């Protein structure tokens, strides 16, 4: 997992496009949440995050470029050029770097699963290698709205890559992922940022899903709500112990990532404000469901072969 924890790296910009604007273990079922147009909190949260990305992209020395964020933000679009870097934008850069390092420099990582708010432009703005399969799990209504805006401005997925949406409201997310082409016998990297987590049970369902499908040695990283720890956030040792127990119970070894460390390694000043998310990176230690099936199939074959050899000796 050391590769994910190397903060210092070239900017995660990858695809420079012209600026665009816009006038088994357990089966996981749908992660449901109601949506309600103009008063929809999920839609507003996604727009707020897009606004932060838009503002960051217009700084003199941006952490990343997101030429698509502006089409998600209702006019007038404000640009607030701040001296300090926002936690969310630092997390976005950390995740971008980890994704690009993994898919571009580690053989076999061609499956990317993104738990998002529905307005994540990573499938469009990052430089994915050919044959990458990208799966976005997010609120269907927000995703459809964002997809229409992206279509209106002519946004395209990088050539020779495939992009699939899985509504978080799906009755069986695991089955839907697999039906769209995900396989648990190939490496994958999993990311969560912006995805609406309402309860601890919601987040545990996400961990179970990743544990079921991710091969041993695969990665899961991103942001989780700090209130999930059910402890004083300032007590880092207690928070760390709680996270270790939660992740390890689902087969993951986890590290808490310090925003201060990320900011320092990127030569940025961190904004002095409370942030209610924890940045983490985890590695899968268990075998996926598909790996276990292959293991038992081979085990059964060897047993049958042994029985036949023993019978011949008799």
Automatic annotation (TrEMBL):
PANTHER family noted in UniProt: S-ADENOSYL-L-METHIONINE-DEPENDENT METHYLTRANSFERASE YKTD-RELATED (PTHR43619), S-ADENOSYL-L-METHIONINE-DEPENDENT METHYLTRANSFERASES SUPERFAMILY PROTEIN (PTHR43619:SF2)
Protein name: S-adenosyl-L-methionine-dependent methyltransferase
Chain segments annotated as transmembrane: none
Gene Ontology molecular functions: methyltransferase activity
Pfam families noted in UniProt: LCM (PF04072)
InterPro entries cross-referenced by the UniProt entry: Ppm1/Ppm2/Tcmp, SAM-dependent_MTases_sf
Residue runs in coiled coils: none
One GO biological process term: methylation
Record key words, sorted: Methyltransferase, Transferase
Source organism superkingdom: Eukaryota
Methyltransferase among keywords: yes
Keyword match Membrane: no
């Amino acid at each position: 997992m050391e590769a994910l924890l190397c903060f210092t790296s070239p900017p995660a910009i990858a695809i420079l496009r012209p600026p665009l604007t816009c006038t088994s273990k357990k089966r996981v079922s749908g992660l449901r949440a109601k949506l309600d147009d103009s008063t929809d909190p999920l839609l507003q949260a996604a727009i707020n995050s897009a606004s932060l990305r838009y503002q960051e992209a217009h700084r003199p020395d941006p952490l990343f470029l997101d030429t698509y964020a502006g089409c998600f933000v209702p006019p007038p679009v404000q640009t607030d050029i701040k001296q300090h870097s926002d936690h969310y934008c630092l997390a976005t850069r950390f995740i971008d770097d980890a994704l690009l390092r993994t898919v571009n420099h580690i053989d076999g990582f061609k499956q990317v699963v993104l738990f998002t708010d529905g307005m994540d432009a990573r499938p469009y703005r990052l430089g994915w290698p050919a044959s990458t399969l990208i799966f976005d799990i997010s609120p269907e209504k927000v995703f459809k709205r964002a997809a229409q805006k992206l279509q209106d401005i002519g946004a395209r997925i990088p050539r020779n890559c495939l992009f699939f949406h899985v509504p978080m409201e799906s009755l069986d997310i695991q089955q839907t992922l697999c039906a769209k082409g995900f396989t648990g016998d190939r490496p994958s990297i999993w990311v969560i940022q912006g995805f609406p987590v309402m309860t601890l049970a919601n987040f545990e369902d996400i961990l179970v899903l990743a544990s079921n499908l991710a091969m041993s040695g695969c990665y899961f990283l991103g942001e989780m709500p700090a209130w999930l720890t059910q402890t004083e956030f300032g007590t880092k040792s207690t928070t760390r112990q709680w996270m270790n127990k939660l992740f390890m119970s689902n087969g993951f070894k986890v590290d808490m990532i310090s925003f201060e460390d990320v900011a320092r390694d990127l030569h940025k000043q961190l904004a002095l404000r409370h942030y209610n998310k924890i940045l983490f990176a985890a590695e899968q230690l268990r075998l996926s469901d598909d790996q276990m099936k292959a293991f038992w199939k081979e085990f059964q074959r060897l047993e049958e072969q042994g029985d036949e050899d023993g019978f011949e000796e008799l």
